[in-house]
Structures are given as structure tokens and as C-alpha cells.
TrEMBL record:
Keyword set includes Endoplasmic reticulum: no
Membrane spanning stretches: 28-48, 54-72, 92-109, 121-140, 192-208, 214-233, 353-374, 380-403, 424-449, 455-475
Protein name: Uncharacterized protein
Keywords, in A-Z order: Membrane, Transmembrane, Transmembrane helix
Organism phylogeny: Bacteria, Bacillati, Cyanobacteriota, Cyanophyceae, Pseudanabaenales
Amino acid sequence: MQVSPPHSQRQLISGKVGWGWRQATYPISVNFGFAGFLMLMVAIAQLLQTGDLNLLSIAGFLILVGILLGIFTARKVVEVCRQNSEYSFSQLQLIGIGSYWLVLIGGLIKFSEPLSKVFVAIWWILPAAIFTGISISLALRSSKPKPTNRTKQSLESASLDFLNADVLNVVTYSDRTVLVSPSSLGQQPRQFNSLVMIVLGFFFWTMLDFPSAIRAIAAIAFTVTGLTGFFTWQAQLRSPEKILNLRFSGLWGISAEYEIDLRPFTSLSIVKLQEANGELSWMQLSGSSREITMPLAMTLAGQTKDAIKEGEPANQNDRFAQTIREEFHLAKQETERDSLGLANVLLPQGAGILAGTAFVAVGVLVLCLFPLPAKLSAESAISCFGVCVVSPAIARLSLQLVAPNSLQSDRQNHLKNYLQSWEIGTAILLVVSFLSTQATAKVGFPIVFNQILPLITLICGWLSVAIGVCLLAFVRRTPLWNNTY
């Protein structure tokens, strides 16, 4: 988000875009290394059980190719950390991932159960090797020469200053545009760790030999948690236009953008809940006729470590609020309200949390109580992908129903002429249902229904859990509006 400024001629005045990028690559390297090692060990263990040396030779070749691809991909990971931007897949990467996914689907359709397990194990060798290559490359790129005695003290001092600094990064450009976002150290490890969790979710469903219910719950928990965590956020403050632009990146409907005109607002208030003794607080833009409550994902990020130790409210002295006030000349207010006075915030956020929790609980119960597919099939693998694509859109619609005063994303207006993710996800699930019915088309209806019921149960359970997790994530990332007249 910070690598593509709206004005190509503007120059950096203050701040550092990639603050903490080198430290951020350490946990990223560990995450990729752990996931790659885990997938490699499980896949190779299954291949060793066959005793076929030809399969091991194929695995060795795939490991070599994967490590080389991982080393090449690591360059982009480093660049993303330096620019503190969202990770976007290139067209070549999307074609490669899509083609490789189709190979998996084709193999599951063609091979019987014993051969399909071997095929899937070989299939996972390449992604595991890519993760391993990324980990190795990041570890080498992040390593620094041992400091001399002259510079050791200054480096240690700078490291301590960094650890005690606010987690928010403020960058100012010559056109009076200010960008506020988490630092690279605070944002990038979470983003890439979420990518690892998405892959591990698919890995658990296709490779684990646990009961179907355990595999299904583990797969959707990892996949959807990674899907909702694979995001970055940025606030763009455009002082001349009096515009506050809030951007959330993400996959398949997770992204959102809110453009707020600040001319009607006169102050930025920190509102505390009286019953919570100031432990719960919200940041609100206040005007004569309207209030907008800022997303919790942005306002809570400004809490410093000292504030956490002292038990101070998350938004009391955070850098985000201070920057907004200075750039737009807003007054500072701190008020306390009871539950009735904060009903316009507590009710929609509480309703969203309750609805998300209910969806997750229902989905887990469905996966635990009803029959699921006993073996891995192409339909179930496609269903997992389809559920991830369609669930964010359903979750946004559900949030609008339970919290009508949630701001709608402006990004949807820009994409109205394109095929949207929920349409693709719906088409995928319909194709899966069609393939399942065609496989048993020659038998009677009761038998057909009994044979496709496990897959329908799996889709419903996964969809319910995914919608719930997305709802819980959107509650933290959606501004709320309220008319005060």
C-alpha cells in the first residue's frame, strides 16, 4: 500500500516506510521453515512406507525445484517487508498455483484411494520445499555481520529504542499526505504467518489420518484464521482535501476501503465505558450531527508497551489519534459514558460478536455430529477452496443485517464491473454439487441423497465456521456511524 503513492512526484519528508523490516524477516523465516519441515516430514514418511525408490527420486527432484523457487520468491518477501506493503501474487504465481491445484484435483479424480494417498504426498513435496527455500533464503538475507566494539553499543541502543517505540509507523510526504500503518515488524510476520496457516489448513485436510471430524475442524480453523489474518492496514491522511482514507488489504472479499470526509467533524474523542473503569475505550470522530467510531483493529494498534504494563486504556495516548488531530486540526476530548450512552457502539459490535460465535458453534456441532466423507475426494478439496472464497461476502452481508450502522466498503463500488469473489465461490460450490450428483446418477434418489449427504454436511459445517470467523474479524475492522441529531 505504501509502494504506490497517488502522486508520482511527491517525495518522502519524514518517517521510514520499512521500519523494522530486517527484524520482521526473522519470525517469517521461522514460520516458513517450521511449516516446510512439517510438510516434508509427513509427506516423505508416507512415501517411505511404499518402499519405492522411484517415488523417492521424484521427491528429491521436487525438493530441489521447490527450494530454487523458494529462494526466488524470498526476494519478493523481502521487498514487501522493506516497503511494508501487502503481499500480492503476481500473474505468473497465480497461473502456477492454479495449474498445480488442478493437478491435485485431476489426481484425486483419476486414482483410487491407496494410490491417491501416495499422489497427494508427492504433490505436497513441492509446496513444502518452496516454504523451506523461502526460510533458508530469508535467514541468509537477514543475517548481518558481527558488529565491532565501536558500533556494538550504538546498535544495542538502537535496538532497545526500537523495541520501546510505538508499533505504528508515520510517514509524511511532500504533498502533505501522511500514511499511518503498523511497522513492518508489527505487521509483516502476521501477514506471512497467516499465509502459512492457509496452506497448513489444506495440508491437514488432505494428509492427516485422524477421524474426519477432527481433520475437518482443524482444516477450516487453520484455513479461515489464516484467511482473515492475511491482511495489512493503512490510514492515508490527505490534509488538503480533508479526507481520511482507511484501507484494509486481503484475499477474496477480506479487503475493504473507507473514505471519510472530515469536514463535518470538529473533534476526535476517546470515549470510555464507565462500567469498565476506563478499560474499554473507543476512538470517535465527533461532529454536530454525526459520529464515526474508528475500527478497533486500527485504534488498539496504537497501544504502547508501557501502557499495557500500567493498565492504561488502549487509545489514551496512541500515535494514530495524535496524528489525525494534528493533520486535520481536530480538538481532543476524553469522555465517559454508560452502557446506554454507548448503545450505538456496544449493540452492533456485541451483535456481530454474538452472531460470529453462533456461526462458529453451529459449524463445529455440524462437523462433530453429522456424517462426513470417510476418504479424501476431489469434491471435498474443491469445496474447501470454494467455502474460503464465498464466506467473506456472506459474512459482510450478515454484519450489515445485525449491525446496520456499519459503514459499507467503498472498494465494492470500484469492483462492480468485475466478477466478484462470492460469485466465483458460489459457482465452485454448485459445480461440486453437480459432480457429486452425477457420480451417483444411475441409482435412486434415496441412495443418491445418502451418498452426497456427507459432502453437503462438510460444506455446511465449513461454511458456518468460515462465516463466523470472518464476522468476528469484520467487527474489529469496520467503522460505525451514528447520527446525533
